[in-house]
Automatic annotation (TrEMBL):
Residues 31-59 are annotated as: Disordered. It comes from Bradyrhizobium valentinum. Pfam families: Porin_5 (PF16930). This is Porin. Keywords: Signal. Residues 1-30 form the signal peptide. Residues 49-59 have a biased composition (Polar residues). The keyword Cell membrane does not apply. SUPFAM superfamilies: OMPA-like.
Length: 617
């Protein structure tokens, strides 16, 4: 019995195909398969035989056959529903085509009668004949028109979206996080200067630095436990001729470029509502099978970077970027990226103050800051599930160096100097700073001993070279072993300049108990190994990783690197471990432990634990 069942299925399948084809066109001629010479007695016999007890008997033999195949286990229920829907849709379209053909034939006959009557004497009678070949031609033309309109407007498929809506795609993700930050004893709280707080607020009076009112500092001594939330919702729309557009909104406590986290209970507390920010907004053009792409606006990082040594993984880039790739041989694809990105654009009305040399009141000169970047690399696939990719990039942070002002009268915190706008508009921690204002010594500041309101800018310039590589070994697919590595070197670094002007990142001078020479650096590297599924998407997918990071103070701009390791910034070294496990389709849990220490400057260390529940839709 079990050996014959597959043969029966093979005999039934051609019949099913034939009947499905018949059902699609028979309605166009006003009859169904069940009407063609089938006696009522036979129909009643079929009903008594119980072809399908789960479904009502249909007048369409194709549908009855599908029900029978479901009952016998040849087809699954969802497959049967899809076949029935297709048959109904195509029958509906055919009926519409037939109606249209009849209507047009009638109109043609009426027009012919009217024309003949106008040309004939009164009382003449005419009988119009429309050849069958003309009717068939009209029917086919109208059927094509109806089908085109049905596919375009989707009215032949109830519940389907119109064509314009199908070109829009929505996506989003949500992450709930517990973050614990644990500080060991021995951190220097007094000298953990928060230059970002100073530079984004009122200038700091450096004459008070030795008084009971110290400068703003980061918290480096008190443990913190934070429940955090990240929510993002994005939309992408295909336009026409290779153009597309995208938007994304996201949570965030502030406009930080490297964090969309919202700490629950912050921003006022008491269940206050939280802000949403424009996280992405761009127009993109793609051509030559998407081998070339040009983006303008605010978009994802266009440069390939397997780690977050140089760029935070969620960083958005403002500006314009071009990407290109070309497969020169099977499995070998060189690629290149280039772009220009405004980091800071001078406010149109920035600054008004008294010029001590001329006594004039004037606006300040523009100090726009830009990032220019280029990358070239090659991706290779040397086995079905194994690949290797390597790239080298060069970045030029233009005009980010702090500049000493001209002689400047500063009598209060509201006074301005002409190079104040060279200070960073956002920073994490790690880079080396200098004072910006050349404050004139006068009676109002007790000849340089009080009211010394100061801003701080970056001492050096930043033109990092970044080498990146990734080796993906998939011999045990779906389990992969992925090795990631990156190296960064600031080619514009000047140690002599750092020694001359740095106010931080100095080693102690044991003899005098004051800050000694600059002891930062301009290099960094990261190595990581990941084992498991490359992407955690389904239940029980998993991966684990471990790595080590070493990033000196002035290897790159600290504003754009990882915000989690060491609580963000450069001048950090240490290890990290973590893992992910799938809890359902597109739902997974994550665990990370990161232990970081300062490389240069004052003592600082922190351990960070992150426990995440993630969902993507």
């Amino acid at each position: 019995m079990f050996e014959k069942k597959p043969d029966a299925r093979r005999r039934l399948m051609p019949l099913a195909v034939s009947l499905c084809a018949l059902a699609c066109f028979a309605p166009a001629f006003g009859q169904s398969a069940s009407d063609e010479g089938q006696a009522p007695a036979k129909r009643s016999d079929s009903k008594r035989s119980g072809v399908s007890q789960a479904k009502p008997t249909s007048p369409n033999a194709t549908i009855n056959l599908v029900h029978m195949l479901v009952k016998q286990g040849v087809l699954k229920e969802e497959q049967a529903e899809a076949l029935i829907k297709q048959a109904n849709d195509e029958a509906y379209v055919a009926r519409e085509a037939a109606k249209g053909a009849t209507a047009k034939a009638d109109e043609a006959a009426k027009a012919a009668n009217a024309a003949t009557a106008a040309a004939s004497p009164p009382g003449t009678r005419h009988v119009t004949y429309v050849p069958e070949v003309v009717k068939r031609q009209l029917r086919e033309e109208i059927k094509r028109e109806v089908m085109d309109r049905a596919h375009k407007e989707n009215w032949a498929s109830p519940g389907a979206y119109p064509e314009w809506a199908q070109r829009i795609r929505f996506s989003g993700d949500l992450r709930a996080r517990y973050q614990g930050s644990f500080f060991p004893t021995g951190n220097d709280q007094l000298n953990a200067y928060n230059f970002n707080t100073i530079n984004t607020g009122s200038p700091y009076d450096v004459s008070l630095i030795s008084n009971p009112n110290p400068a703003p500092t980061y918290n480096v001594t008190k443990d913190r436990h934070q429940p955090r939330l990240r929510a993002r919702l994005g939309m992408e729309a295909d336009i026409y001729n290779g153009f597309s557009a995208g938007l994304r909104i996201a949570t965030g406590e502030n406009s930080s470029p490297v964090s969309t986290n919202q700490t629950l209970g912050a921003s006022g507390g008491n269940f206050s509502k939280y802000a949403l920010w424009l996280d992405r907004g761009y127009l993109k053009y793609q051509a030559w099978n998407n081998d070339v792409a040009v983006s303008i606006g605010r978009f994802d990082n266009p440069f390939w970077s397997p780690t977050d040594l140089a760029w935070h993984r969620d960083l958005g880039f403002d500006g314009i970027a071009a990407q290109a790739k070309y497969e020169i041989a099977q499995g070998i694809t060189p690629f290149a990226v280039a772009g220009a990105f405004p980091i800071y654009n001078t406010d149109f009305n920035v600054g008004t103050n008294l010029d001590p040399a001329t006594g004039d009141v004037a606006k300040f000169a523009s100090r726009d800051k830009w990032l220019f970047g280029g990358q070239a690399g090659v991706a290779t696939r040397f086995a079905p599930e194994s690949a290797f990719r390597v790239a080298v990039a060069y970045y030029d942070f233009h005009n980010v160096q702090g500049r000493l002002s001209g002689p400047c009268f500063v009598r209060s915190a509201s006074d301005l100097c002409d190079t104040d706008i060279t200070r960073p508009s956002f920073a994490q921690k790690g880079n080396t700073y200098r004072s910006l204002r050349d404050i004139i010594s006068e009676p109002s500041n007790n000849f340089g001993t009080t009211n010394l309101y100061q801003y701080f800018g970056l001492v050096g310039q930043y033109r990092p070279v970044v080498a990146s590589a990734q080796l993906d070994l998939g011999h045990f697919h779906p389990v992969h072993i992925v090795l990631d590595g990156e190296y960064i070197w600031n080619s514009a670094f000047d140690r002599g300049l750092m020694n001359a002007f740095a106010v931080n990142n100095r080693g102690p001078d044991i003899a005098t108990n004051v800050p000694g020479p600059y002891n930062g650096g301009n290099q960094g590297w990261l190595a990581r190994v990941t084992v498991g599924d490359k992407v955690v998407k389904r239940l029980w997918d998993w991966n684990v990783h471990a790595g080590y990071k070493y990033l000196e103070s002035d290897a790159t701009i600290d504003a754009f690197v990882d915000s989690d390791f060491g609580l963000g910034g450069t001048n950090l070294k240490g290890y990290f471990v973590g893992g992910n496990v799938g809890l359902s389709d597109n739902v997974w849990a994550s665990l990370r432990w990161m232990s970081a220490n300062n490389i240069a400057g004052v003592p600082y260390a922190v351990d960070v634990l992150q426990v995440d529940l993630n969902a993507k839709f």
